[in-house]
Amino acid sequence: MSHDHSDHEEKMILDHEEVPGYRPVFLVAITLGILYLAFIFFQTL
């Protein structure tokens, strides 16, 4: 079974429209998670 790379295959790309408001909510959630972990870390010192 040989794989001949001379055949041109197009790659399938999964694309979607951006959901409005997703990025700010994501950044707030990540920031709160990091702050929470930092709080726990400094409480253990």
Describe the protein's architecture and organization:
- This protein has 45 residues and is mainly α.
- The chain has a domain at 21-45.
- Helix content is 49%, strand content 0%.
- The protein has one helix at residues 22-43.
- The mean pLDDT is 87.
Give the gist of this structure.
This protein is mainly α. The chain has 1 helix and no strands.
Task: Give short descriptive properties of this protein.
45 residues; mainly alpha; 1 helix
Helix/strand order: H
- The shape, in one word, is elongated
Overall radius of gyration:
22 Å
Structural class: mainly alpha
Q: Helix tally?
A: 1
Low-pLDDT ranges: none
Helix content: 40-55%
What about the largest sheet?
Answer: none
Strand element count: 0
Instruction: Note the gap between the termini.
Output: 60 Å
Report strand %.
Answer: under 5%
**What is the arithmetic mean of pLDDT?**
87
Explain the layout of strands and helices.
Layout: H1 22-43
